[in-house]
Amino acid sequence: MADTFSHLNEKGEASMVDVGEKPDQKRMARASGKIFLQPQTLKLIKAGSIEKGDICAVARIAGIQAAKNTFTLIPLCHQVPLSKVSVDFEMEDDGIRTTAIAKCTGKTGVEMEALTAVNVALLTIYDMCKAVDKQMVMSEIKLLEKHKK
């Protein structure tokens, strides 16, 4: 079992992967997700009329903050020296698509940070719109790409 899942030791127990001997490399990951919203909710967002404030500005900060704290949320994640996190939004006819990019120079990847940024940005939109939209759905959350050099 330990050969299949890197976070299991030879006894099949949860274990943090030892990356100490790996070389530092430039790493990048990009993830995305979408929150489906009612047309009226999108109108309110575009008009800046949501009572809690600028939805995308708050969700962007929340996503960046979440990426920086991924290692505190996911038990076996390493603390990664992030050099860049971006969170962007694209208004679509039926919702908002969120894309996050995380970068670092380190011994392990940043896909969990990018995915965490997307999830928390979407949750923030959900929280800020829940008073006006009871039918929101967060979906299509996925890793789009990851690289190392």
Automatic annotation (TrEMBL):
Positions of the Molybdopterin cofactor biosynthesis C (MoaC) domain: 16-148
InterPro entries reported in the protein's UniProt record: MoaC (IPR023045), MoaC_sf (IPR036522), MoCo_biosynth_MoaA/MoaC (IPR050105), Mopterin_CF_biosynth-C_dom (IPR002820)
EC number: 4.6.1.17
Pfam families given in the database record: MoaC (PF01967)
Keywords: Lyase, Molybdenum cofactor biosynthesis
Gene3D superfamilies noted in UniProt: Molybdopterin cofactor biosynthesis C (MoaC) domain
Any one GO BP annotation for this protein: Mo-molybdopterin cofactor biosynthetic process
Pathway named in the protein's UniProt entry: Cofactor biosynthesis; molybdopterin biosynthesis
Amino acid composition bias (Basic and acidic residues), ranges on this chain: 8-23
Location of the region described as Disordered in the Swiss-Prot/TrEMBL record: 1-23
SUPFAM superfamilies xref list: Molybdenum cofactor biosynthesis protein C, MoaC
Single annotated GO MF: cyclic pyranopterin monophosphate synthase activity
NCBIfam families assigned: moaC, PRK09364.1, PRK12343.1
Function: Catalyzes the conversion of (8S)-3',8-cyclo-7,8-dihydroguanosine 5'-triphosphate to cyclic pyranopterin monophosphate (cPMP).
This protein's name: Cyclic pyranopterin monophosphate synthase MoaC
Taxonomic source organism: Mariniphaga sediminis
Gene it is expressed from: moaC
